[in-house]
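Annex B, item 7. Sequence and structure tokens for protein A, then protein B.
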Amino acid sequence: MNFFLMWVIWFVVAELIVTAVQLLLRKKEVKPAVRVVLIVVKALLAIAFAALPMAGPVQLRPVQPLMMALYAALLMDAFADIIYRIICAIRKTERKFSIAKTLSLVLGVLFFIYGTVNMQVVMPNYHTYSSDKLTTMHKIIFAADLHVGSAQPFSVLEKEVKAMTDEQPECIILGGDITDDYTTKEEMEKTFELFGNCGVPVYYLYGNHDRQKHAEYANGLQFTAEELQQAITDNGIILLKDEYAEIAPDLLLLGREDISEGGERAKAETLTNPSPEKYLIVADHQPFEFKENTVTGTDLQLSGHTHAGQLFPLRSLYSVIGYACGDFTEGESIMNVSAGACGWRVPFRTEKHCYYEVITLQPAE
């Protein structure tokens, strides 16, 4: 609950900063062309404050909540300015500044409520894939980017895991960033105990945040990589680091080490597929080496990491430079990039909903 309170405080601070700056500008005569430029500048600043917490240097992490709050306040203020200018043009008269600011606050609060609620609702996302390599039907669940303790209370995870088990999957694949730099040791241990008791095989691969490599920029190291691995394996969860596992007689899984590990991650061409006649799922937290992974004979790659941008309009920007979310193809291989079951740093998400993937694999007709 504390992170909800802190998020409210950061948002109020951001609104105060945006209001104070505009009060200073109000004292000066501003030409219509300059007003247009100011709207564009506010929108661009909002996008910058969205992008930097998502992909900026780790040194920015202490100020990421304020940056994300400024993103929300600035973006809605820019929209409010556009609406206000349209009203002024229709009425052919300049309205009071208080009207513009009231409109900005109303939009900001609505945006704040939507993004905060959106982060707390995790839904299933259904997919069906067919192949002549499959002899029977399979249902598996892929869940990535839970970021336990970062942006959702633990009660959301408990409901999510129950919903997953209610689907009666053959197995669950945890696709990385299940924990992060803000996860406490107690939260980490409870998480893997929860998945370890779900009654089906659970496979796990690391993401770029799980091992708290940059915890000095968060709350300090809460657990070691060894303690994390111990909690995973002690609960019967199968950890895969560039290793294969047989899910069924016709279904194989390759879990990749995360790309952030550099030399610790094997080259895809060295990971000889032991059963090329079987349908091969490659689980790789980050989607950026999809083409390289196809040398293993990948039929389906499952990835996460992107959060579908998390903050509008980053999904569109990510789509221009790479993979945001959804299905992609490379030759005969398909990659599904999950939007993720949570988000990063603050309880705020204004792009796609939080999802875990429910995947049905069936023989080709």
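Protein B:
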Amino acid sequence: MMTENFDKPAYYTNRELSWIDFNNRCLQEARDTSNPLLERVNFFGDYAK
């Protein structure tokens, strides 16, 4: 059985930076005019949370 060393910082992501990345992806999808209008509104809603 292999044991992992979970003390390495590379195994973890910064929660705030991850949230900013998520918001950026939502905003990009909301601005994409190839998405249907209601999908775009939904992405704006996720971005605004």
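Comment on protein B: Residues 15-31 form the longest helix (17 residues).
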